[in-house]
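Reviewer comment 2.1 asked that we show a complete input and output for one of the modelled complexes. We chose the FE2/S2 (inorganic) cluster case, as it is the one discussed in the main text.
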Amino acid sequence: MAATRITVKDNGPLRIEGDFEILDPSGATFGLAGRTALSLCRCGHSANKPFCDGAHKAKGFVDQVQARELPPPKPQV
Ligand code: FES
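Response of the prediction step:
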């Protein structure tokens, strides 16, 4: 298993597990109180962004996910 695993949940959040840190745009680190797993909102409805608070269920967020190959990255100029 990779040091960090992110699982995209059907109709729900991004579940992140392992060794990670979460930064705000200024580079400041969120204090995670020792958590090694948490969920990040991808529905846009959480009142506690960037973390999931379960609002996706009440809002009826629907997005089924299946792993796929991405195209190669564009060359940097
Ligand atoms: S994914 Fe759970 S509140 Fe947005």
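Helices lie at 55-59. We note this here for comparison with the apo prediction described in Section 3.2.
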